[in-house]
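Appendix B. Chain record.
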Amino acid sequence: MRRSSRHSGHTLPAPTPGTSSDTNPAVDAAGKAVALRSGRCECECECEYIVYQVQGTPDDPHLCSCRHETRISGGPAVLWVGFRKDGLTWTGPGGEPTWYPTWPTLRRGFCPRCGTHLVSVADDSDMIMVTGFSLDDPTGTEPVGHSHREEAAPWMTITLAPEPLAPLPTSP
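Structure tokens predicted for this chain:
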């Protein structure tokens, strides 16, 4: 996984408020509308044990195929989407997830009941990464990058937007 403190400059526009029942407008301290999204673990049996809300624009949605992620998820990649840590609220009856340190400066949050892997956060970061498909509405979180692509399963091919072109040198 990319370190949560790294920003690639890939910030997607916020979804239009009201386009989904799961993406609602919220108001920041200045009274400006910001997107509010919800997400949850797989405990769908009415308890919805670990539930969260994040505010703001999704940042750096990307796939990660590092060995760490593929082992944890059991899949060929994990979709990570960044949001500001101060815009995260745990709203379900379970409160915060159970935290597990998976690197000296990185910890992951998962549901202690169903095991759903929900979030990852680096100690020195102001961002929290949520698993893209734990969001109730993943609209606008299409990956713009694929970290550890060289470690991906050989049969996994993903077409992503090209890397930004370097600016052309200016003439003297």
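Further analysis of this model is presented in Appendix C.
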